[in-house]
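Aim 2, interim progress: modelling of the heme C-bound target.
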Amino acid sequence: MADDARGRAVFGARLGRLASGALALSLGCSASAPPPATPRPERESGGDHARAPDGRRGAAIYDRWWAALGIDFRPDNAASADVADGAGGPRGDGTLNGAGGKAMLNGGHDYRFKNLFGWDLRGADGVYGAQYLSKPHVLATDLLSVDWSRQEMADRFTRGGAGVPAFGQVLDSDQIADVVAFVFDVREGRLPRPDQIWELSPGTAGGYRLKSGANVERGRQLVGERCARCHGTDGRRFPIDDSHSLGSHTRQKAYEDWLKFIGGQPGTSMSSQLPEGQDGAAHAADILDILAALCDRTAFPAGEPSAGDAADGDVRCGAYLK
Ligand code: HEC
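Predicted structure of the complex, ligand included:
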């Protein structure tokens, strides 16, 4: 698609998001309300950067770019091999192109950065690797240690190649710069690193365990201050991720939730949960305290309907499981 045509498509999607953002403001916290959008002027392609890259916004784009940006896109269905049957994207069928300009069918990655590089950005060395959750779509590249400059990373995301789709056909250069800023903010300590919160655990449920040393009492207070107004004091006000309560989710998917703290839940009223003015280590301490507090199955019970909960002896919460 030509640059200006893409610009119009993205702008149209933003207008839609502005309208739904106003709706979200009037509804307050609700499970289906999209986040309020911050209006910003559309940039002429080739012009100067209109704003500094934003790593938190980049985290949401890394998670699920179309939901984060209000772009109409439904990924090609990975189950129907050989047929492109999604919607949106440069071909209108839910595929993106690879570096060579050919359509890339969905091999299970859903065209999400987090599926290509993992929740922890470490590719096959991380939690999606063979020893842990063993996801077939994860790439070998470890974004936390790869020797690419920011520009090189932005170019690779834009043009695609080696299993990466050409994201430049659906994301503008500011949005790609946000994703790169997210990666470098994590690497350089402005945002929390996953290994400050949990460690990989080969061959056990979920492939990870929370780090020791949390202050559970403080975490409980932070849940009350930062999460309860939406999720309820016991975390059961509305189901999350289909069927979980806040407690049952965080007890089983902390490898995922650390990213939700940074970028929020794309397409909902939950924005970044990290206070401004702290460095990555302070954020990581808050997150670990909160996740440890949420390991209390009595104070934060599983939801109804429930997708199941961590059983006695489950290692993910370690000694915090109550
Ligand atoms: C402004 C309201 C709001 C606040 C504050 C908030 N959340 Fe959320 N949260 C939501 C909404 C809405 C969803 C999406 C529910 C859905 O799936 O539709 C959500 C989803 C989640 C999810 C599920 C992510 C997934 O994979 O589906 C987790 C985990 C979560 N929140 C954790 C937290 C934690 C921890 C806090 C406190 C630090 C918090 N939230 C604060 C509104 C909020």
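The radius of gyration is 19 Å. Residues 194-320 form one domain.
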